[in-house]
TrEMBL record:
Keyword Transferase: yes
One MF annotation (Gene Ontology) recorded for this entry: pyridoxal phosphate binding
PANTHER family (UniProt xref): AMINOTRANSFERASE, AMINOTRANSFERASE CLASS-III
Cofactor entry: pyridoxal 5'-phosphate
Keyword Transferase: yes
Lineage, uppermost ranks: Bacteria, Pseudomonadati, Pseudomonadota, Alphaproteobacteria, Rhodobacterales
Family label: Belongs to the class-III pyridoxal-phosphate-dependent aminotransferase family.
Protein keywords: Aminotransferase, Pyridoxal phosphate, Transferase
Protein name: Aminotransferase
Length: 460
């Protein structure tokens, strides 16, 4: 095909990909993986080598807020690359990173006005955790190092970020820093015992945090890390008031509260950041990435409270040197992409757009519960999850193969109808580009509804 932009055939792409690209979160040596090839992106669509268009249900990996194919993003990136592609972040300042830091500080809640630039979500989280340790070392509290995290949480794939991650089945053969971390039990209200109210469930989950603090002692705990809604653990929305209460407990116990907004920031829940505007809390530290550049380039950030920065200066004076950094911290081209992305979100009113579309999106999602094979649906803003229960009553272990079959079958049927979903065992998650329209949402859920109906007929 003379119009194909690459000289090699799709079959060759797959062959070389199978052979040489060690894909993230995958088995070693997937010689017959034959992944679908993405050639182009346009708006909410991904386009394959045959020109077939697919709605990108997961929006890349929860990150493609403004959609694909934006000329002005390419121009902003190109012109910054021509002007100044790189400078040492240690030795120099430059306009893109200074402007972006100021912009993020202005959007952030409370006094989170200090911005550390990382290369993505994992390194932003890693920085936050290392900062908590650094902070306590400087304060002369070397024992105060433990992290509290939660079952089903996902915070990244660097060593420390992976150590506070607790998706069972992840990381079985990888080492993590187990001595440093305690995981609080799953907060998913769907799991509450029959007859228990959501309020009582919330009390129990808050009590789990209090119990962990009394077991270990606040003087051994540096920080608590929490996703506002737990994304890749299966879109777990906490019971109302959970975040506010846990935030207070952390404050009372001198435990830093890290809000991992890698998924929830930049409009996914209809606001720049969800912590304050959706959940009413001001954390000590916020981590973000993904939607910061809408996936056009990699970038992450760790936003730190001025109170902590002041304490550090008081405690450490000239010695308060945080020896944590990346060659690409504050990369000028990535920062230019983020600034343009933020400008587009603002100019096109995408935060308001998400808030307007949310009731419809969530209503369409919840309609899927009419299928007996669907155990639960849950979501917030433009993010949702449908959880299939093809084999109720089986033990978790027995269910795994069947559950996986559910996810994979729904995925295959949706793909045949032009929708990408992201199967997570027995769940499919959605976080489409924020530019999605109401008719496109309807199209997405119509396809899903049909696919689930077909899978139900096959499996139940
Ligand atoms: N935190 C959360 C909440 C995430 O969802 C992710 C990625 N899915 C990360 C951190 C890690 O981000 P990255 O993959 O950019 O390193």
């Amino acid at each position: 095909n003379p119009e194909t932009p690459t000289a090699i055939s799709p079959e060759t792409v797959q062959k070389w990909d199978n052979r040489h690209f060690f894909h993230p979160w995958d088995t070693v040596g997937g010689e017959d993986a034959d992944r679908m090839i993405a050639v182009e992106g346009e708006g909410i669509y991904l386009i394959d080598p045959d020109g077939r268009r697919f709605i990108d249900g997961p929006g890349g990996m929860w990150n493609v807020q403004i959609g694909y194919g934006r000329t002005e993003m390419a121009e902003a990136i190109g012109s910054q690359a021509m002007k100044l592609a790189y400078h040492s972040p240690w030795a120099f300042a430059s306009e893109p990173s200074a402007l972006l830091a100021r912009r993020l500080a202005a959007m952030a809640p409370g006094d989170l006005k200090t911005v550390f630039f990382a290369t993505g979500g994992s390194s932003a989280v890693d920085t936050a955790l290392r900062f908590a340790q650094f902070y306590n070392n400087l304060r002369g509290l070397p024992e105060k190092k433990r992290f509290l995290a939660r079952e089903k949480g996902y915070h990244g794939s660097t060593y420390l970020a992976a150590s506070v991650t607790a998706k069972e089945r992840d990381g079985n053969l990888l080492d993590t820093e187990k001595r440093l971390v305690h995981f609080l039990p799953n907060i998913n209200p769907y799991l509450r015992p029959e007859g228990m109210s959501v309020e009582d469930w919330c009390d129990a989950k808050v009590a789990d945090l209090e119990a962990a603090i009394s077991v270990y002692g606040a003087d051994t705990i540096a920080a608590y890390i929490s996703e506002p809604i737990m994304a890749s653990g299966g879109v777990i929305v906490p019971p109302p008031d959970y975040h506010r209460r846990t935030r207070e407990i952390c404050r009372e116990n001198d435990i830093l509260y890290i809000s991992d907004e890698v998924v929830t920031a930049f409009g996914r829940l209809g606001h720049w950041f969800a912590s304050e505007e959706v959940f009413g809390i001001v954390p000590d530290i916020i981590t973000c990435a993904k939607g910061l550049t809408s996936g056009y380039l990699p970038l992450g950030a760790t936003l730190i409270s001025d109170r902590l920065m002041a304490e550090i200066c008081d405690a450490g004076g000239e010695d308060a040197v945080f020896k944590n950094g990346y060659t690409y911290s504050g990369h000028p081209v990535c920062c230019a992409a983020a600034l343009k992305n933020i400008e587009i979100i603002e100019r096109e009113g995408l935060l308001e757009h998400v808030r307007e579309l949310t009731p419809h999106f969530q209503a369409r999602l919840n309609e899927l519960r009419r299928h007996p094979i669907v155990g639960d649906t849950r979501g917030m803003g433009l993010v949702g999850c449908v959880e299939g229960h093809p084999a109720p009553g089986m033990s978790e272990r027995e269910r795994l193969a069947i559950d996986q079959e559910f996810g994979n079958r729904v995925d295959a049927k949706c793909e045949a109808m032009g929708l990408i979903v992201r199967p997570l065992i027995n769940m499919c998650v959605f976080s489409p580009p924020l530019i999605i329209t109401r008719p496109q949402i309807d199209r997405m859920f119509d396809i899903l509804d049909k696919a689930i109906g077909q899978v139900e007929a096959e499996m139940m």
